[in-house]
Structure formats: structure tokens, C-alpha cells
Specification:
Structural class of chain A: alpha/beta
Radius of gyration of chain A: 17 Å
Shape of chain B: globular
CATH architecture of chain A: Alpha-Beta Barrel
Helix content of chain A: 40-55%
Number of helices of chain A: 12
Number of strands of chain A: 9
Number of helices of chain B: 16
Largest interface: A-B, 44 and 36 residues
Strand order of the largest sheet of chain A: 5-4-3-2-1-9-8-7-6
Strand content of chain B: 15-25%
Distance between the termini of chain B: 53 Å
CATH class of chain A: Alpha Beta
CATH superfamily of chain A: Aldolase class I
Structural class of chain B: alpha/beta
Helix content of chain B: 40-55%
Strand order of the largest sheet of chain B: 3-4-14-9-10-13
Oligomer: heterodimer
Amino acid sequence: MSRIPATFERLAHAGRKALIPFFSVGDPSLALCVPTMQAMVSGGADILELGVPFSDPMADGPTIQRSSERALKNGVSLLDVLNAVARFRQTDDQTPVVLMGYANPIERMGRERFADQCASAGVDGVLVVDYPPDEARELGKLLRPHGIDSIFLLSPTSTDARIKEIAALASGYIYYVSLRGVTGASNMDPQEVARQIARIKTAATVPVGVGFGIRDGATARLLAGVADAIVVGSRIVEEIEASTADESPARVGALINIFRQAMDA
Amino acid sequence: MKIYDMPDPEGHFGPYGGIFVSETLIAAIDELKAQYLHYRDDPQFQTEFAYELKHYVGRPSPIYHARRLSDSLGGAQIYLKREDLNHTGAHKINNTVGQAMLAQRMGKKRIIAETGAGQHGVASATVAARYGMECVVYMGSEDVRRQAQNVYRMKLLGARVVPVESGSRTLKDALNEAMRDWVTNVQNTFYIIGTVAGPHPYPMMVRDFNSVVGRECLTQMPEMAGRQPDVVLACVGGGSNAMGIFYPYIPHESVRLMGVEAGGEGVASGHHAASLVAGSPGVLHGNRTYLLQDSNGQIIETHSISAGLDYPGVGPEHAWLKDSHRAEYVAINDDEALHAFHTLCRMEGIIPALESSHALAQAMKMAPAMGKEQILLVNLSGRGDKDMATVAERSGIAL
């Protein structure tokens, strides 16, 4: 089993919700990946989502696309991402790590080799943004024997049938996309999110996290009332963008602490 | 041959095609698929589509026997399917009329499109004006600069052109941006994809709307030449004009189908856009197909003198036709295409698009070694007026 279920259990006992920050590996640099991950954990992150850079991140908004482009400029590959996770694992064997990215780099590496590498690096979950359920099922068959979870997205437009199909495949947690749009957009309606999460929970057995468009502690706190986890992505990438490389991990850690305190208050 | 009935209900052409998009787009794609399947079999829709193609587009387009060109080569007879004579000057309008009619029936008041050279953008802006819809065209900022005249044409037609500054600032980035718009505005917006790529049902739908080209050829060739051609040639970027002319010929096994990709500065140079000739399978823009990618699975930048062929992927049905050996794919480089361009101008008084010049160049390469009674049918997919600046620049002339 991955580190994800134990993490949610521990949080449930403590009466807290999971905080899941996202950033692209290689932004601002590959060398700062592990320090950034460590700063996130120190700041209060429970699970880390690592973006695997891709040249054509169709589901992401301009902020995360720019961070993907910076990472690619730094020459970061999927193998580099996996190696970074392995390095992180030498210092932290507790915090779950989820890879989030697009199909093509995985297909290029080969699904089997990817699954094996995830296992040896210490990855806990994989979310392939542009895999349909059938393809994800095939990848899941290779990940499951290693105890690696298959994370899925659901959206406001997902039908009940679709929710059922995905709930049956998902492990670890389900990531509910809280708005109609790309990452970093800003038209989220908290009441609508609460209704949708309740709808998903009728079919899902795993925890449901919410993300896309959570930009401040107040919103995170509000949504932590209805979801099991809060995912913060674009806001963190903006912080990295606004920092010099040297101060970036510390500033990201401080930002995460603001979200943490708001959620726990 | 067993009946060709690709794609399967999930949009697969063998291992290619499919629906590789984020969950946020699934509902929109399901809606589009259901509506298209409904109207595809609706006689009233088809009657109106045929009417529009005849009276608005100007179909059927003629086939022209390029006698002087054929004689000068001393071999096979070259025939040209004159898609350049369509309204807006290329085959692209066939598809945009079809999709705009569908958008109208789905109650979408706003259409969006991506464009590279601007031909599909112009065709989309044209039908938006024709059907009274708002139109936004995404275009890489690099292409906006290179194709200033087409940008102005789109604006004249009432469209808003949005320059895309991300990635390589070309067609693939415009496509990414259009997808993002669609995810965000899916309730009132119809996305008109301009080629036989993207998630299912686009590759099938765009093929269907363009296959009027091949169906006309099936009746025109016997009337003109007494028989079907030995080879049908078409240029392939995303591959919509090629699918349009190939598709009705697929069951006619004696007819060779040949797709011509952009060889740029030569396939060996690495500066090209020949995904089928030199690429490998992967996933991009919603489907599995042949791609130009690096060893880490990142999409690489392409090069072609022709902006319309400058795309790192290709429609999934072409990937299938390649693997199943029903069609062959070759590459023609920039210089060969330019030579064909100038030759057709001088010998037949027809200025072809640089895209179409690739298919023509391949025909000119093959003709001399073939018999005089043999026939090569080239899809002259567009006219070359849009390419004046590019050609002049290559010849060292400032307009």
C-alpha cells in the first residue's frame, strides 16, 4: 500500500484536512526540487504533487505552462523527476509523493519501465491528466502491484455514470476540479463545490480533494469544510516565479504555512 | 478487402486515435459526439450541407488535366483536383461549413478555431460571418507576424484574432490555447478544429466533411479519363485534405494512396515536419498518433516553408493507413516544393499553395518513370496567393 491512505487516516484522527501543494519539478531548478519539497513539508504540507514538465500542457493555464517551460529549459525529463523523488526519499520516508503529468513522456519511457521506476523511487500515486479511463486502467494494472495509487480528476461537468466509472478505478484520492476552466482560473463557486463533492462522495470510497482556483487561506479554509484535501498549484508557482532561486524554497514553505494555519484554525 | 469502418465507437483507428483529454473536456466531447452522430444520419442536415457546398463554396470543384506539365515530364498524366477554386481558396471551407451548421443546431453562438497559416482561421471567420456567430481565432504570435494578410482578412470578416505567446508560438500552441478556451467556455462555445486530429469525434467528423473531395473524384475521373487514377496524391500536415480525397478511395484497392509530408530542409537535417516518415507513436492533442518528439517525449519544433504543414503530429487515421500499408507516406523538401510551385505557375497558369506544391512535387518526381497512359491525381488543396510574401522572400525579392 502507498503512503496515501495512512496519511488520510492520521489526519482524520487529528480532525484535520490534507494540504496538497503542487509545483513543477525543475522550476526554478532541478537542484532546488528536494529543498522545495522539504520546505513544503516543514510548512505543513501532507502530500506533495510533483508536476512532470511537458511541452504541451493542454489542461493547464498560463501560470503552470510557464513553469513547465522553465523546467524544460532546464532540461528536466521524466527520469530527472523520478530521480528527484528518490533523493527526497533519502530524507523523508513519510510524506506521500504524487506525480501529475501528461501521457506522452510516460509512453515514451514505456509504461512498464515507468511503473518500475516509480516503485524504486518511492512514488505513491500517479495522475495522468490526459489518459481516458481505459488507458489509465492499463497503467493502473502495472502500478497496483507496486502499491502505487491511480489518482483521477473529476469535474463539474462529469456525469453520474462517469463519476461511478472513475470511482471504481480510483485509489488514493480523487481530485475534484473545482471550476470550469484550466488551472489557475478564478471563477470558483464554493457552494457549487460543496454540492458536487457530496455527489462524488455517494460513489467514491476514497477521500476527495479539491483544487483549481484556490488562491488564499480563506478559500482553503472554506473548502476544507467540505473536502478531504485542498490542492494548491498556480498560487505556489506564482510564488516561485516572484522569488529569486535562492529564496524560493523558504518563500514557498512560508506560503504553505499560511494555507496550513488557515485550514487548521 | 473487408469493409473499412474505422474508427470504432471510441474513435480508435487500430491503436491510434481515441480521446486523450482532461476530464474537464469529456462532457463537451460526449455532447459533440452524440450530436454529430445524430446529424450525420439526418437527411435534412445532409441536404442543407450539400446546398451550402454547391452555392456557397462553389462545388463541385473541377478536375483539370495538366497536359503541358505532363507532356514536359514525358510520362504519366497529371490531373489536378481544383480545391484552390473553392470559396476562400482551399479545401478548409468544406469542414468549417459542416461544423458551423452543427454548432448552429447545438445552439452555440460562439465559435473558436486555431490556425497556423491562417487558412483555417479565414475559413472559420467566413462561416461565422455567414451564420451570424461570434468568432475567436487563436494563432501563434510567430504566425501572426508571418501571415499578416490573413490576420487582416479574418478581422475584415469580423473575427477576433488572439496571438498566442506560449511555447513555440505556432500552430500547436494555438491549438493548446483554443482547447483551454473551450474548457472554460464550453457552454456557449463550439470549437472548430481544422484538421483530422484532436480527440474523437474530430478526426472522423473532419474527414467526413472533407470526403466530398474524394467522392467527386470518383465520378469525375471516369468522365474525364475513362477510369480511376493509378495514384492519388495529397500533402499531409494534420492531413485533412488528404483524408478528404483518400477516404472514398480506400475500398478501391487498385488505386495507390500517397501522402506527402513536409521534408523541410531534408529529413536527415532534423528540420522538417514529417511525422509519419520520421516520427514515432505518442499522445498529443487528444489522440494517439505519430509525433515528432525527443527521447524524453517532449514535442519538438518543426520546420516547413509551408506554414500549413508545420505541425508535429498527424491525424490518427493516417497513422493507421501507414501501419496497415493502405497508404504510403513520403517527404518532399522545401526546395522541391518551391520548384513545383514555380513550374505550375509557368506551365499551367495556376498558382498553387505551398502546401499543395508538396503533393505536386511528388507527382512530378514519379511521372517520368511511368507510362503515358498512367494517371496521377493530385489534390491541389489550395491556391498560393497567401504565399506571395514567402516565395518572394525566398527569391530575394522585397514586395
